[in-house]
Amino acid sequence: MSISVQHLHKHFNGFKAVNDVSFSVEDGEFVSLLGPSGSGKSTILRCVAGLEIPSSGQIMINSEDVTHIPVEERNVGFVFQHYALFKHMTVFENIAFGLKVRKIPRKERDEKVKQLLELVGLTGFEGRMPSQLSGGQRQRVALARALAPEPKLLLLDEPFGALDTRLRKVLRSWLKKLHDRVGLTTLLVTHDQDEAFELSDRILVIHQGAIQQDASAKTIFNEPATDFVATFVGETNRVEGMVRHGLVEWGPFKFIPLTNLKERTKATVLFRPIDVYVSSQKEKEDEVPGTIQSTRFLGALEELHIKLNDGDFILIAQIPKGVAHESGFGVGKKVYVKVTSFHVFGKIRVN
Ligand code: ATP
To answer: How does the average pLDDT of the chain come out, rounded?
Structure first.
């Protein structure tokens, strides 16, 4: 089932929560809406579900205009973070609920619930009440309940939001496998970059009600379209340089922009800590001397805060823990640094 959203606007008392959003999702695709809190992700999803009426714009599901079609006629399944299970019903009854409403015969219903319990790995739990389940098990029941009426489209709004990091990871890879097996078109709302990266074929980065970038996780990480995307997705060094002779100068560094920037204007340069190469000895001409001011333990990586010798410039590098240890990269150590990959955003020169 495909989705096409065209020029979607949603205002709440004059406040533009969604501002001219257009995108499409192909049949079987897994697409995430990623953005900070309040950016409008849920509102977009709710408009697709039919829980919110757009101020203007069009929503098509399978080439059919559903903009004004009520939620129950859209054949979508949804799971929300706070979409609680029916407390007074067993796991079995919860999953069977949508089938009962649709008056599916008992035998068929029982068979379907059995299959779903197997799919979500909860066979044997059918007689339990929701209060007798862990958070992750409850989320899986919620997913099974959403899948029961065989929706053609699955809408998920922070479905694992309330769970701890480990459980989120387990359910994430479980959802990925489920999606690959069932091939259901899925639209997920999340503010968790790792979640979006692991699950999605494509990610829409949302900021202030608008799409900043619509691309694969790889493209979003390696080629962020805007300053916002680069800063929001992954950690980054963000510095202001001056454009001189076509280059952006920041301390001893000179960055070559991809576009012609206006001379003597400020430009923002973003580079990831993992793209800072650090060595004990000067190996190449373009390496700049500095001193490690502080370090931070990040598990597999070690973060180094390095003050350049030339001027008052500090940058952050992240390197594998083993390398840091072998090279003796501790506080006070003199090092040489080089930025291996960066992005420049500035005022483009109009000739
Ligand atoms: P979060 O990750 O915190 O859920 P979000 O990106 O999903 O955020 P939305 O829930 O879509 O954001 O909200 C976008 C903006 O619209 C917010 O500023 C919110 O306060 C506002 N908003 C959402 N629903 C309503 C409503 N029913 N009435 C008024 N304002 C609303």
So the answer is: 91
SS3 55: coil
Q: What's the pTM value of the predicted model, to 2 decimals?
A: 0.83
CA–CA–CA angle 306, 308, 310 (5° rounding): 170
> Any bridge partners for residue 156, and if so which?
79, 188
Ligand 1 centre and the CA of 17: distance in Å?
Answer: 7
Q: Is the CB of 14 under 6 A from ligand 1?
A: no
Query: How far, in Å, is the centroid of ligand 1 from the Cα of 43?
Result: 6
∠ CA 15-228-269, nearest 5°, is: 150
Residue 62 CA, chain-centre distance (Å), reads 25
* 38 CB within 6 A, ligand 1: yes
How far, in Å, are 80, 133, 152, 161, 176 from residue 182 at the CA level?
20, 25, 10, 23, 10
Q: Is 12 close to ligand 1, i.e. is its CB under 6 Å away?
A: yes
Q: How confident is the model at residue 75 (pLDDT cuts 50, 70, 90)?
A: confident
**What three-state secondary structure class fits 59?**
strand
Residue 111 neighbours by CB under 8 Å, 6+ apart: none
Q: Kindly state if the Cβ of 270 falls inside 6 Å of ligand 1.
A: no
pLDDT band at residue 234, thresholds of 50, 70 and 90?
confident
Domains and CATH numbers, the chain: 3-231 (3.40.50.300), 235-349 (2.40.50.100)
Give me ligand 1 centre to Cα 157, in Å: 12
How far apart, in whole angstroms, are the C-alpha atoms of residue 244 and residue 258?
Answer: 14
Tokens coding 29: 């695709």
Ligand 1 proximity of 63 Cβ (cutoff 6 Å) = no
CA–CA separation, 225 and 204 (whole Å):
12
What are the b/e assignments for 22-44, b being 16+ CB within 10 Å? ebebeeebbbbbbbeeebbbbbb
